[in-house]
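Researcher: I've been going back and forth with a colleague about how AlkP-core domain protein might be arranged in three dimensions. Neither of us has a model we trust, so I'd like an independent prediction. The organism is Halobacterium hubeiense, in case that matters for your notes. Sequence below.
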Amino acid sequence: MQDQRFLESDWDYCVVLDACRYDVFSELYDDYLDGDLEKRWSTGSSTPEWAYRTFEGDHDIAYFSGNPFINSLGIPLNELKWGASCDYEWSADDHISEVVDVWKHGWDDDLGTIPPESMAESFRDNQGLVADADRTVVHYMQPHAPYLSRGGGQKLRQIQKGIKRQGERAELGEDGGLLSALGDRVRPRVESVLDDSNLAMKVGLWLETGLGGVLTDGTRTTAMRYYEENLRIALEGVAELVESLDGDVVVTADHGEAFGEDGVWEHHIETHIPALMEVPWLELD
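Model: Here is an independent structure prediction for AlkP-core domain protein. You can compare it with whatever you and your colleague have in mind.
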């Protein structure tokens, strides 16, 4: 299996499916798309790590981002408290020529995420940016939770709040004061404890799937069912989008998603297990 080689590979348009496992994608994709599929090894097990390790230097790319970590706001990943929780001094606008914040203007409050149709609409409305850039990336949030059929997702809300809070602090010229300092000291200790707890890792999934299904079918079965449904919804949108594209198109992922493999649930920074690192690389016919 070769490395992802995201920027080194030949493509005009790249669709990124957030948190998309290779094995699940390989079972579903040909209901929607035709092409040559490979398994590749990502550069990171989470979006912040993937972005930090993939986008070095300067790149003439129109990047339509459904993921708040990749934004045009100039806030480094390591300053997105309660979101990235990492040491990466990286921001998208330092490396990518044009970032369209679909995560912001395409947000659906009822779903708690950015639906596929928002991505397509933003792409259609910004054809000037596409024409001016060497290449284009369309980064969908799905199959990443929240799961569209349930609505009211929670996973992206904390990131949204963190970005808003950071922006407010920047406007006021403040560092957040005593409460913020205490939070920054306590947070890593709390997270280190939670990261070691199999039970704690499941909590995020329980918020997205609801305890009803979990109690009946178990966490993995319930979460995988919603995850596959999310992927199918995304693939429907991608199939419609790529019909209008003229050029070489690739569909891939930033990282995968774990459902209990090696004791890991969801995805975490620098957790290099196959469930998180093996991603699809589909070159469309």
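Researcher: What would you highlight for our discussion?
Model: I'd start with this: Residues 169 and 176 are 6 Å apart (CA to CA). After that, consider the following. Confidence is low (pLDDT under 50) at residues 175-196.
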